[in-house]
Amino acid sequence: MSEDILLYELNDHVVTLTLNRDESRNVISDDEMVGAIVEACARINADPDVRCAIITGAGRAFSAGGNVKDMQNKSGMFGGTPPQLRDGYRNGIQRIPMAVYDLEVPIIAAVNGPAIGAGCDLAMMCDLRIASEKAIFAESFVKVGLIPGDGGAWFLPRVIGAAKANEMAFTGDPVDAAKALDWGIVSQVVAPDDLLNAANALARRIAVNPPVALRMTKKLLKESQQASLTALLEMSASLQALAHQEPHHEEAVAAIIEKRPPDFG
Question: What's the sign of the alpha-carbon dihedral 224, 115, 35, 42?
Fold first, then answer.
């Protein structure tokens, strides 16, 4: 992974990923950033010590999404014939929603500034969102004559419902932090200097829980978006059978009975 464009920091079972391209407002459309995000997600999944993740942006923006200059120049992922463009999306930026969706631990978007286009969609891919007062969300693809090519049409309605998602996508108009809170895009809005503290406080509330049960809970919640009740109940029974045999289950129960904090290592 390119250490300079995506910072990876593990502290007390929480990984913080920082998009580190302030000069480009943290665009995520090039192959290098796509690869860095995909690799970071795989690294998190492979590390049993990780229980929660945070993603944020360095500098002025959370992420401006696609590189508009590349669009104008028809370079990078925005160049080529229609078949080449299709393959460019499938083998490029569309790897991000698959990687973030497949994360086994909860991930929080700490939205420090504008989240535009694919940057807005990246925030929607996360399980939870906290916004700075400076945050702006815009599903703005229509403003440049494009469509949400990175899965936004799937993620956004699941976060805020069809009507509000339609309004954002059809108008391309920005939504400020206060409206984002009112619409349920984010769960908290805080002062800019308090953003990472708030995100870490939420992450710590998650990370105190048994890691295996946490990952299985996220798996069930994801499957519930598309599974029938019968299928989900069957999966729940199977995962619960595994959870009952986990040492962390025994430790959690013992801690409750003994009135002490649990120790999950």
Answer: negative
